[in-house]
Amino acid sequence: MATVAVENTARPDEPLQTDAPAPAPRRGKQRWRQVLVCQASGDRVWGVWARRRRDQVDVQEVVFTTPQEAAAWLREAGSRKRIVLVLPRPRYLIQTTQAPSANPDEVMQMLRLEVEAHLPPDYGDVQTAYRRLDAEGAVSQRYEVYTARRETLQDQCEALERLGLKPEWVVPSAVLWGQLLLTRPTFDLLVAQGPDGELETAAGQRDGSVLVRTVQSGSNTQDPGTPRGLIECIRPLLATADAADRPVGVGWLGVECPAASNGRVRFDALGDERLEPTAQLLGASARLLLEADTDPVQTLSASNLLPDDWALSDQRSQSLRQLAVGAGTLLAALLMVFVALKAATYRLGVVSDGLSAQIDRIRVDGAATGRRLDQLRAIQAAQRTHGDLTGVLMGLYEATPDGLTYNYVELTPERELHLRGQAEALSQPFLLPERLEPTPMFEQVSLRDASQSKKGRGSVAEFRADAIFTRSEGRP
Length: 476
Known about the structure:
By secondary structure, the chain is an alpha/beta fold. Helices cover 37% and strands 28% of the residues. Among the domains are: 88-154 and 170-306, no CATH class; 385-469, General secretion pathway protein M, EpsM (Gyrase A, domain 2, 2-Layer Sandwich), CATH 3.30.1360.100. It has helices at residues 67-77, 104-117, 150-162, 173-183, 230-243, 280-291, 296-301, 308-399, 432-436, and strands at 7-8, 34-41, 44-53, 56-64, 82-87, 93-100, 126-132, 140-149, 169-172, 189-193, 199-204, 210-215, 248-253, 265-269, 404-411, 416-423, 442-455, 458-469. A hairpin with a 2-residue loop joins strand 2 and strand 3.
């Protein structure tokens, strides 16, 4: 095997170096605040918890082996967190294919049929995801397709579920490698240590796809400073680098960067001293998801290998939560409406009682006022007819024949005079019109009726008469 000359430019006091500009913080309501990027093996889950605080991102390595440890982290992280499970290269297949442009659901069906046609019959049930390589609008699109056994995905998700964690995305490492290569354009190859001690490498291709390999991390016999198997990943890149008159740029996501050899290959240490070697890729990915210019959901949605039944279960859980929240909101609204109605009813009752009391007072005052008006009208009528009644009595006294007496005299406001009385003889009431008509005070005198009845040993005549009273001139 030919020896590849390498050069190490990393310095021990600068563990994190890159020639790529730092990505500008994305401003938008979809920006994530915190994310856990993790991997699982057996009963152990490890990962990197990244939190964005203003314009800085803090990373912290976490390891969960018991549900109590995961529960403590969940309490500390709160509700605004995202969990991304990374699938290492040996656990998924990757291929590039071409298909007509279509909506995402149709694309997924076409790619699944294409992939299943090339799988062995005994491969088992698979889950498929993809990453589009061409820009939107093209008649035909190229896709990087990821395929994983459903059994493998179930095991990975169940490892998290046993600890009380629920992943929202199961992402192939190639997707994260592709995003990291985009932010580090000066590197031809990126390298990180995998979960089982092997090295996982990623090289960007001219068509936009990512070539991800797993190589052994043992020493190379011809070049002890370069890990065994890494030479085969670097060799295809030499021709392109030589044509551009530059060394092959290798970004080492770790703290133990290979030793230098010569100028055809340049190693740069990109690791974080705070993280273990197996967490370097997770840490870089977590930081990238919080600092990326693009929406992480758009980046991860199509490439999500989360099993369908898990996705449906999560959708049902979300629907139930939304239903519970909606029901709680509705109950709260109904309670508020009930309380408001009770308060309004109470206020209206108070107002009604006040109005009823006012109406009662108005009725009492109205009745008293009516009585006062009646009294005033009576007083007015009495004042208006007082002199007339005196004149009537004086006229009756002068013109009434002897033997007649009056027991009822009424003078109406219309000056009508009504008389009732008694006489000693029945002939005497017939003399009354003749005696009253000639006087200037009375006119239209008529005897309405006269009758005689016994009284004791004798008899008495009773009569009724009407007349019109005319006030005489000069009489008070």
